[in-house]
């Protein structure tokens, strides 16, 4: 079921990109990998768009599918307040591609309604976020658990929950060696 939900998100992304293309908006660099902080921070762009009527600038494209409750919250409060992790992702992608705008498209999985929001790059926010991420990467100790139980969101999706919650040993490799340091 979880895999089907992720696949639904991928299919919605393709539909949204097709909709943009039909509207005369050019979509480039779909699924381009981005990296920062020595490869510790990685992601894939949904795309870069050119030709938005609202701005004469190229923009990062981020597509997300939401259930009805989540979608309505994004509509009411905006991405920054309702989905801070999505906002952070958009800010980092803009920073890594030296762009000042992001088109965030949200689709309601229950109704197929689409919400579009143009996000502006917030340099101070992004610098603070990058410093925080660097501190986490350089930390000798793991941070606190995100959820108290492994079956709660977002731990339910994590492939390291046995290490975090059941205190199992991590797989032996260079990244888990006590003598290793981030590069």
Fold blueprint:
Elements: H1 2-22, E1 26-28, E2 33-36, E3 41-44, E4 47-50, E5 59-66, H2 68-77, H3 79-82, H4 84-96, E6 101-108, E7 114-120, H5 123-138, H6 161-165
Parallel strand pairs: 5-6
Antiparallel strand pairs: 1-4, 2-3, 4-5, 6-7
Describe the structure in your own words.
The structure is a single chain. The protein has 183 residues and is of the alpha+beta class. Helix content is 38%, strand content 21%. It contains six helices and seven strands. The strands form two sheets. Strands 1-4-5-6-7 form a five-stranded mixed beta sheet. The chain is globular. The mean pLDDT is 89.
End-to-end gap: 37 Å
Task: Using the alpha-carbon principal axes, give the shape.
Answer: globular
The main sheet orders its strands as 1-4-5-6-7
Listing every helix as H and every strand as E from the N terminus to the C terminus, the arrangement reads HEEEEEHHHEEHH
Biggest beta sheet attributes: 5 strands, mixed
Stretches with pLDDT under 50, minimum 5 residues: none
- Computed over alpha carbons, the radius of gyration is 18 Å
DSSP helical segment count = 6
The tally of beta strands, per DSSP, is 7
Overall mean pLDDT: 89
**How helical, in percent, are the residues?**
25-40%
Beta content comes to 15-25%
Q: What class, by secondary structure content?
A: alpha+beta
